[in-house]
């Protein structure tokens, strides 16, 4: 058996202490130079004819074009995608090559459920911080409309086949407790004392903010118009679909969706959606060399894990970690983006972290805008980048199935 004694380890530690200063320098500063997203389509809605990689490519092309960046300059790509059955081999690679990136570039598909897009941004940032790359693309994508049903590969000796909905099973099902994610939300609401009224109030406010944001052009800079070809001519989709569907007077009377007498309903839950988002990250030095004006710089990021059933509270663990690494407090943050898998997620964060509700999801969140799960983590970073004013700090957090979360802190330039 191999053993490492303290004595035998001393030369190793000694060599680390005598590493040249050039190799021990601080990590490279990472900046976000472009950030785009497609509109978020309803399931079986305006974007149903597109695969996830096609949506991802649309977002990435727009991000590159917005700053006149040659796709061949992008050395690597990380892209989130959750429900991958039937999407085709290496979804991220499909995005890279269809967007004009060089065949010599690399691409990796990330599945951290709802945090996939944000984790992609974090991995891209790390690649630059380590000095391995200088230009990296990141984002996420999902076409929930095209998620297939699954059949067992082996034939039964007798009887019926049972089809499994890949969207539910791979994307929206707590495999540890064998229940829908909404049931975990119900558990969290009870644990933290979040009432039905509180969740409904949050949901209606999210819809109102989204409606106001679209009316005032708050999303104009980040949106990728998507052209849908049809027999009667082309249609250009420029706007999220979900936020228009609310009937405010019906919200209080909706039945609970996951538990008899529960507090989580169709109104205070995120819907099923299609969409994609993309960001271009560079080292500050490379951006200067190329003459590209950065939008924001990445200050810190963190992940956190909790019990699977407690996933709605995971952002309250990840966000403080990211803030601590940035040497910032909640009060230093001008705007928060916290993904609204359910309204209860945001209510828990407000309560646990003492965040003013007026600073969270100022232009609405996933309850109203939609939750294309592979994209949502990067979508909220895109929206945060464009919502902040120069000099302001922003923080984004997203919970994910399995009991975890990711968080990131940025500063607008």
Automatic annotation (TrEMBL):
Q: Does the keyword Metal-binding apply?
A: yes
A single Gene Ontology CC annotation of this entry is:
mitochondrion
- Official protein name in the record: acetyl-CoA C-acetyltransferase
Q: Which domain of life is it from?
A: Eukaryota
Its family?
Belongs to the thiolase-like superfamily. Thiolase family.
Record's subunit section: Homotetramer.
Catalytic machinery residues: 114, 371, 399
């Amino acid at each position: 058996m191999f053993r490492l004694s303290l004595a035998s380890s001393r030369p190793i530690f000694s060599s680390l202490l005598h590493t040249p200063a050039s190799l021990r320098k601080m990590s490279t500063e990472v900046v976000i130079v472009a950030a785009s997203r497609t509109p978020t389509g309803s399931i079986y809605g305006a974007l149903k004819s597109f695969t996830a990689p096609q949506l991802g490519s649309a977002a990435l092309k727009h991000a590159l074009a917005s700053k006149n960046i040659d796709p061949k300059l992008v050395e690597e790509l990380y892209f989130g995608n959750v429900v991958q059955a039937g999407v085709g081999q290496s979804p991220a690679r499909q995005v890279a090559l269809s967007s004009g990136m060089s065949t010599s570039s690399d691409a990796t598909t990330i599945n951290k459920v709802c945090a996939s897009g944000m984790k992609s941004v974090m991995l891209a940032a790390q690649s630059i911080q380590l000095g391995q790359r200088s230009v990296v693309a990141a984002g996420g994508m999902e076409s929930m409309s095209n998620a297939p049903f699954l059949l067992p590969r082996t034939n039964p000796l007798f009887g019926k086949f049972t089809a499994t909905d890949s969207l539910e099973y791979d994307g929206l099902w707590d495999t540890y407790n064998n229940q829908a994610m909404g049931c975990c939300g119900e558990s969290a609401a009870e644990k933290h004392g979040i009432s039905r009224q509180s969740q409904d109030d949050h949901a209606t406010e999210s819809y109102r903010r989204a409606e106001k944001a679209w009316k005032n052009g708050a999303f104009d800079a980040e949106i990728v118009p998507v052209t849908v070809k049809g027999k009667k001519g082309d249609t250009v989709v420029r706007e999220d679909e979900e936020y228009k569907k609310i009937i405010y007077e019906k919200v209080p009377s909706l039945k609970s969706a996951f538990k008899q007498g529960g507090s989580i309903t169709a109104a205070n839950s995120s819907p099923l959606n299609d969409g994609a988002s993309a960001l271009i990250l560079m080292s500050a030095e490379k951006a200067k060399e190329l003459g590209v004006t950065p939008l924001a710089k990445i200050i810190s990021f963190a992940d956190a894990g909790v019990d699977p059933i407690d996933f709605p509270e995971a952002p309250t663990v990840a966000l403080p970690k990211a803030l601590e690494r940035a040497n910032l407090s909640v009060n230093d943050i001008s705007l928060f983006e916290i993904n609204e898998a359910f309204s209860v997620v945001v209510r828990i964060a407000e309560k646990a972290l003492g965040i003013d509700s007026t600073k969270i999801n100022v232009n609405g969140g996933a309850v109203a805008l939609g939750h294309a799960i592979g994209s949502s983590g990067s979508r909220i970073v895109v929206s945060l980048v464009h919502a902040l004013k120069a000099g302001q700090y922003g923080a984004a957090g997203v919970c994910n199935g399995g009991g975890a979360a990711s968080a990131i802190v940025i500063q607008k330039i």
